[in-house]
Amino acid sequence: MATARNVAATPVTIVIFGGSGDLAHRKLVPALFELHREGYLAAGSAVVGFSRSVASDEAWRLAMKSAVEEFGRCKPSQNTGLWDEFASRLFIHRGDVAAPKSFTELGERMREIETQRGLPGNRLYYLAIPPSSIEPVIRNMGETALVAPSESSVWSRVIVEKPFGHDLGSARSLNELLSSVFRERQIFRIDHYLGKETTQNILVFRLGNGLFEPLWNRRYIDHVQITVAEAIGVEGRGKFFEETGILRDIVQNHALQLLCLVAMEPPVAFEPNAVRDEKVKVLRSIRPQTTEEILRDTVRGQYGPGAVGGVAVPGYRQEPNVDEASLRDTYAAWKLQIENWRWAGVPFYIRAGKRLPKRVTEIAITFKTPPIAFFRKFGVMRQEPNSLILRIQPDEGIALRFGAKQPGAAMKFDPVKMDFRYSEYFGAHAPDAYERLLLDAINGDSTLFMRRDEIEVAWEHVTAVLDTWRENPPLDMPNYEAGTWGPEAAVALMARDGRNWRRP
Ligand code: BG6
Fold first, then answer.
1. So what's the pLDDT on residue 67?
2. What spacing in Å lies between the alpha carbon of 20 and ligand 1's midpoint?
3. What is the pTM of this model?
4. Residues of the chain with pLDDT under 50
5. Which atom of ligand 1 lies nearest, measured to the CA of 361?
6. Ligand 1 pocket check for 362: Cβ under 6 Å
7. Which of 162, 272, 321, 501 could form a disulfide with 446 if both were Cys (CB 3.0 to 4.6 A apart)?
8. From the CA of 429, how far away is ligand 1's center (Å)?
């Protein structure tokens, strides 16, 4: 996608709202350390954490050091000089997101830091905070002049983490709120799946090769399966999950973004609006479903107790902070039709779930079988369809399955596979998605971020499902055992069409 990695980053002050939160620990500061290590952070650039609880710069630097030690690729303990250099970029601002005074003080603190470090005043604000804090933060930023007007010589940008609303109405309100303070080009709505190397490779694979794109349509493709499976459960996030569910947590964003990249038309240019125009067209082409169709073409599930990787695990209802009669979805399957010239009649099946047998995200494209059973006289009545598997994670790679003749006198077929593995070919560990996305935001490249209309059209479809599900409560939850591939109804959804889910 965009070539931000070849571009020197501009000097910037990065403010992390939620400086002592989980995301800052696990992802943001480790990613920034990595950017520093690779020389992508311009001299002087500073990172200011906004937090209610951390007492001093020193305390935050120590907390971040252990966070990077635990979650980062490059360990501070083995690179002390490098860490010390990076740590000198870190500052904490203690404040309350609801208090305008904290924001006026933040402005003063940033000016001080910027003067000391010779920074021009470019600012990147990262909202790594729960939805309830977003509104006061945006309002206070607007009221305390923390945001440079978009025509000024320095820039201010904001990165907004998911969840981006919990339905269409709330996503629209959030967009309204953001646009009362920022212009659209200043807003970077993040979906970290777009920053994954293998996700970016979907377009390179399709559009950078002559072989595949001519086949990429309803004439040759039978159906597409998108799987986002996780072996983990809700990992102490019971309260969050009770309010969210897998459809909002994974399908509305990550899975639909993957679908967009697989299904979109080639953009007219490789630039933010051209790419996002095509993604929006895909979302707009998803055929709206009636209540009956939603009940027929979606499956919701919830895991009960079971075992994952041989270890016994509790059911969802036994997780902390989960209602013991909860009807929340931890699994969702959805059959969609994209009604345009390229895809009419080719179903897209999405499934996502927690506590499935393994962690795997992949896109499987199944091609049509040959028009005649050419080897019938040898008893081969039907050949396995060819399939192309784009493995997003883990074991990143691409596999092509096709039939081959078994050696010997008999005409027997075996499905074989050509397999490309990133790790074998490129060796080095891939950068984390947040590294790429932070750098793109610093460089002002929004290709891998979601535009307002994209979010809203995705929510239109998902909200229709959520409404139908709410009006028709499930009677069978929990309906899959932890460590299995989901509810029986999901198997039936495919079987009805004479197909099967792939076993990754
Ligand atoms: C997050 C979800 O967006 O993505 C989590 O909130 C999920 O529930 C995570 O576990 C998965 O991300 P990844 O990069 O590990 O596939």
1. 97
2. 19
3. 0.95
4. 1-6
5. 16
6. no
7. 272
8. 19
Give the Cα separation of 45 and 439 in Å (integer): 12
Residue nearest to atom 6 of ligand 1 (CA): 249
Q: ∠ CA(174), CA(184), CA(153), 5° rounding?
A: 130
Separation CA 262–CA 225 (nearest Å): 11
Distance 250 CA to ligand 1 centre (A): 7
pLDDT at residue 7 in the model? 58
Determine if ligand 1 sits within 6 Å of the CB of residue 230. Answer: yes
What is residue 379's predicted lDDT score, i.e. its pLDDT? 81
Residue nearest to atom 8 of ligand 1 (CA): 249
> Which residues is 8 bridged to in the sheet?
none
Q: What pLDDT shows up at residue 8?
A: 63
| 321 close to 192: Cβ distance less than 8 angstroms | no
| CA of residue 193 to ligand 1 center, whole Å | 9
191 lines ligand 1 (CB under 6 A): no
Contacts of 68 (CB under 8 A, 6+ apart): 29, 30, 33, 74, 75, 76, 83
Position 492 scores a pLDDT of 98
Q: Is 254 a catalytic residue?
A: yes
Q: What is the CATH number of domain 13-161?
A: 3.40.50.720
Confidence at residue 236, expressed as pLDDT on a 0 to 100 scale: 85
Pocket residue to mutate for ligand 1, from 193, 250, 393, most atoms within 8 A of Cβ: 250
* Domain layout of the chain by residue ranges: 13-161, 194-266+290-430+464-495
pLDDT of residue 383: 81
pLDDT at 430: 79
How many beta carbons lie within 10 A of that of residue 15, not counting itself? Answer: 25
Using a 10 angstrom Cβ sphere, with 0-12 exposed, 13-18 middle and 19 or more buried, the burial of residue 224 is: buried
Closest CA to 234 of 353, 350, 333: 353
Report which protein residue has its CA nearest ligand 1's atom 13: 193
47: which residues sit within 8 A by CB, 6+ positions away?
Answer: 13, 14, 15, 16, 29, 32, 89, 90, 91
Burial of 467 (0-12, 13-18, 19+ CB in 10 A): middle
Alpha helix (H) residue ranges in 149-306: 168-181, 197-207, 238-243, 246, 256-263, 272-285, 291-297
CA distance readout (Å), 429 to 33, 53, 75: 16, 35, 14
Report the C-alpha gap between 332 and 294 in whole angstroms.
Answer: 12
